[in-house]
Amino acid sequence: MSVTNVTCNIGDKEIKFETGKLALQAPGSVVVTSGDTNVLVTTVANTSVREGIDFFPLTVDVEERMYAAGKIPGGFFRREGRQTEKAILACRLIDRPLRPSFADGFRCETQIIATVLSVDNENEYDVLSLNAASLGLQLAGIPLESPVGAVRMSLINDEWVVQATNTEQEESIFEMVIAGKLNEKNEIDIVMVEAGAKENTFEKIDSGSVAPSEDIVADGIDLSKEYIQALINAQKELVSMNDVPSVDWPIIEDYSDELKSKIEASCKEELNEISSITERSERSSRQNELQEKVVEEFLDEEEDNSKAIKLAFKSIFKELVRDRVVSGGPRLDGRSPTDIRDISSEINLLPMVHGSSLFLRGETQVLNVTTLGMSRLEQMLDTIDTVTSKRYMHHYNFPPYSTGEAYMMRGPKRREIGHGALAEKAMLPVIPPKADFPYTIRVVSEAISSNGSTSQASVCASSLSLMSAGVPIREHVSGIAMGLISKNSEFVTLTDILGAEDALGDMDFKVAGTRGVITALQLDMKIEGLPSDILRKALEQAKDARHHILDIMEDTISEPADSLSGNAPRLESIELPKDKIGEVIGPKGKNIRKIEEETGASVEIDDDGILTLGSTEQESLDTAREMVMAIIDPEEPELNQEYEGEVVSLAKYGAFINILPGRDGLMHISKFHSELRVNNPEKILNVGDKIMVVVDSIENGKVGLTPVNDLEIPEDAIEKRQSSNKDRNSRSSKPKDNKNGNKNRKRVSFEDEFEKGI
User: Fold this and answer.
1) Class in CATH terms, 343-556
2) Among candidates 400, 442, 444, 440, which has minimal Cα distance to 419?
3) What span, in angstroms and rounded, lies between the C-alpha atoms of 696 and 708?
4) Share of residues in the chain with pLDDT > 70 (%)
5) Which are the contacts of 195, defined by CB distance < 8 A and separation ≥ 6?
6) CATH class entry, domain 570-632
7) Residue 70 and residue 22: Cα distance in Å, rounded?
8) What are the φ/ψ torsions at residue 74 (nearest 5 degrees)?
9) How many CB atoms lie within 10 A of CB 648?
10) Are 142 and 28 spatial neighbours (Cβ–Cβ below 8 Å)?
11) 644-757 has which fold?
């Protein structure tokens, strides 16, 4: 197989696709390159269908290799473990636009693996991998209805920039990943949007930048189409340069048109009546009863076509509901297209947590809890990115009882991680900067009841919970899930969709934001040909819904609480003078340990010299602050003044004694006793001993001390003087190696010894 490649220019960026060099056993193999970022994407599909399967088994995996960034993994085993959150989100990004692009009825098990080989930390690998996956599927001959192209659009200096580097992204206030495919008219239809504002969005807006409003976002989506077209063209060019295998892929038909027609004739009238029942449990009960009746009527016991009957039955029900909505009739629960279900909210439900809320929208309930901690509790990230920690975390849980089901719980699934990431993206722009609020923040959304858009309910609940905890967020953020039902050229946009409407509709569209700014957006299309004006209308309709929800949330709590919960740690930051950082830390962290042990407060110092004190007790915090300030700006000792000191260290030449906070002095061995000479201070004093001393000298900031009273000297600590002339003569008669005698002997000064001690 020969090596072929195609280069595509997107804005001022170059993207290169290559095949035929790596992973030659894989039917589809593509290396995509942008800058120094390289990703190997392989695509493989089985040629047969697993027996009994009634869904499309597509698996997408992203393998981040630490060597790609020149790193060795952390942890004991020093090898990659489970997927990072970023890798999981990249899997979802690849899966969502590709899954609906496969041919109807294709059920062969298919796997896409993106292995990150090299990253330059400027060009992100996720969008590149999505384009390469689409190309790899085509090279493998796997039936796609259309190639899929994707780009990242960033709002920088009031203009949309395509495929901005991470350095360029530092100036961005809003970012979108947009995927599209070709329709029958050879035009680009948008199939997926994943978007969010940045941490500094509001600061940029305050400085005069254009806000990412509905119109601005819609403009960015429209602009992306020309770049998506270029990427699809590049994919098609490379495919044309290679021999694509011709495979007779099995296509599974869920049911025959004949069977569907018979079922429709038998139960359409009764099913139409059932679809008009607005109460969910009654409607579901009647629907299940009728389904069982239909299965019994049309069951072929020899072939066991019960699954086909049920699928045809559901299809008829779906069409009935869709037709009624498009023709101007009510939705499943009786609402009009723009109506929002009853909403209520409350805060401070849980007594021991730092902040809590409960948000209800119809049958959807989300319980949210905010927890505050010190900087050391930031999430440490062992990834191929340059980002090493995360201060704000949003976690989303979806237990089985939320839908009345029972199944094994094995940790968060990809969907839960994705919903948590979307809510985190929505809230991040209003989270106060660390300089203003030096806390690590964890928010947990418990989806305790689900009937439509728990992800956006978790955004609303998070905003309420953060305010109840006293986190000074800029303003409330609300979220809403939108849907779309279309027939021919008619489109009806639905506000606040139910779980059933999500399955019945043609679009899943989630929008979160403040009153004036979109902070997060997620769109997945199931049909072709969504006109731009319909998308703009959906955005405006979502805005009206957000404002309605914000009114209700503000009635519950309109501003952050004046004070933190009594259970939350109090933090106080002190900017240390650069020349005092070492003194505050002390030798091997001695001073910090002392402060923590004596006060019970936590002490942290960051790389910028910002010291943070934390404690749940104000008294503990005050005491710790006093101890720090005593080191930074210590009280000066006075000459001839008496002090009660504490022995902090011993040396062969004396003892270092703390007389004031942050101020030690040296009591030389010669001053231990007025008459006796001492040979070993450790036989007389112990670290921690209390002793009354007087300041007898202050020279160049160094303090000399004398005990108020002579110390008690043990017999074995007294230096024995040798006074015999014989001994003196014997010492003096020894030959001198140095002709200059003692002239070159180093003299030890008080200052020298003092310096050694400290």
Assistant:
1) alpha beta
2) 444
3) 11
4) 95
5) 174, 175, 176, 177, 217, 518, 520, 521, 522
6) alpha beta
7) 21
8) -80, -170
9) 16
10) yes
11) OB fold (Dihydrolipoamide Acetyltransferase, E2P) (2.40.50)
Q: Measuring CA to CA, which residue among 129, 146, 141, 144 is closest to residue 30?
A: 129
* Amino acid found at 214: E
Please, what is the Cα angle at 584 between 583 and 587, to 5 degrees?
60
User: DSSP state, 718?
Assistant: B
- For the record, the structure tokens of 490 come out as 């008619």
Residue 78 φ/ψ region, left for φ over 0, alpha for ψ in the -120 to 50 degree band, beta for the rest: left
Please report the sign of the dihedral spanned by the C-alpha atoms of residue 607, residue 610, residue 616, residue 621.
positive
Contact (Cβ atoms closer than 8 angstroms) between residue 69 and residue 84: no
pLDDT of 725 reads 46
* Percent of the chain residues topping a pLDDT of 90: 66
In angstroms, how far is CA 731 from the centroid of its own chain? 77
3-state helix, strand, coil in the chain (%, to 5): 35, 30, 35
Tell me if the domain spanning 4-240 has CATH number 3.30.230.70.
yes
Q: Extract the tokens encoding 474.
A: 């800029």
Residue 713 phi, psi (nearest 5):
-105, 120
Range with lowest mean pLDDT among 29-33, 130-134, 320-324: 320-324
Q: Which pLDDT value is given to residue 749? A: 53
User: What pTM was computed for the model?
Assistant: 0.83
Q: What angle do CA 503, 321, 277 make, to 5 degrees?
A: 105
Q: What is the C-alpha separation between 74 and 70, in angstroms, rounded? A: 13
- For residue 49, how many C-alpha atoms fall within 13 Å in the half-sphere facing its CB? 15
* Phi, psi for 376 (deg, rounded to 5): -65, -15
- The amino acid occupying position 547 is H
Of 136, 123, 116, nearest to 62 by C-alpha is 116
